[in-house]
Amino acid sequence: MVETIQDWDPERYARNARFVSDLGQPVVALLAPKPGESILDLGCGDGALTEALVAAGARVVGVDASGEQVAAALSRGIDARVMDGMGLDFHQEFDAVFSNAAMHWMRDLSGVVRGVAEALKPNGRFVGEMGGSGNVRMVEDAIRAALSRRGLDAGAVYPWVFPTVQEFRHLLEEGGFRAEMVDLIPRPTPLPGDIAGWLETFAETFLKQVPERDRDTLIAEIRSLLAPKLRAADGTWTVDYVRLRFSAVKEAAGKGKAR
Ligand code: BEZ
Questions:
Q1: How far is the CA of 19 from the centre of ligand 1 (A)?
Q2: For atom 9 of ligand 1, which residue has the closest CA?
Q3: SS3 state of residue 104
Q4: Is residue 174 very low, low, confident or very high in pLDDT (cuts 50, 70, 90)?
């Protein structure tokens, strides 16, 4: 089991990653939350997108593995709890489970899908988006190269999972869902600032493989490997995101493979 070292500082997250919830609006539209529905937001982060579900009139519970992010969500008035997505503890109580930009941190995706199925009422919907196959490949390659020059193996601490359409469809079906849609969507994403801020926010597990005094040099090296590929003439950085977007329905008892 890889131990990831990733802190979620809500202030740093808001500065470098507000686009994550802003770009989640199409996933909310795909879910189409209805007034009075009970919805679980899996990996709710600081609750910025959860607010859109609440605004639609749904009764929403948010869960996140980060205590800091849950505290930020609570301060927005959201019913948020610290809970790991790989250890969900809900039983047939939600009409829908929603997840945006969180599941790629949950390495045991089949455990996640099982927990989601258990959390849903019969015919409940599971709608979300996460990093898919090929996501942030250029960034990942640069990190691997910079760590490798230091005799370190990025694979040993790799914190993410980016499934293919086939892999994810299979996981859903094995977990007792009917997959209505599973799509891979390339989405090159302009950053609000420098790639260094992205690395500090999202790639901490890799950066912490070197002592603190060497971290700025490591970031500078990754940055210079990426500049020719991801930085435009005006200085804007664009990261090679690929989204895996899906919509599924929990099969009625007796139909799916996992019960
Ligand atoms: C993502 O949203 O796809 C993502 C963000 C940070 C690290 C890895 C993936």
A1: 12
A2: 131
A3: helix
A4: very high
The string of DSSP codes covering 42-58 is ET-TTSTTHHHHHHTT-
pLDDT at 9: 76
The residue extents of the domains of the chain are 10-250
Residue 3's pLDDT is what?
A: 55
> Ligand 1 pocket: which residues have CB below 6 Å?
101, 104, 131, 135-136, 160, 202, 241
DSSP state of 156: G
C-alpha–C-alpha distance, residues 39 and 111, integer Å: 19
Q: Residue 259 corresponds to which tokens in the numbers above?
A: 């019960």
Distances (CA, A) of 76 to 47, 60, 241: 7, 13, 28
Contacts of 99 (CB under 8 A, 6+ apart): 41, 42, 43, 85, 127, 128, 129, 130
The pLDDT mean for the chain works out to 93
- Distance (angstroms) between ligand 1 centre and the Cα of 101 equals 7
Question: Which tokens hold the place of 166?
Answer: 């086939």
| Domain 10-250: top CATH class | alpha beta
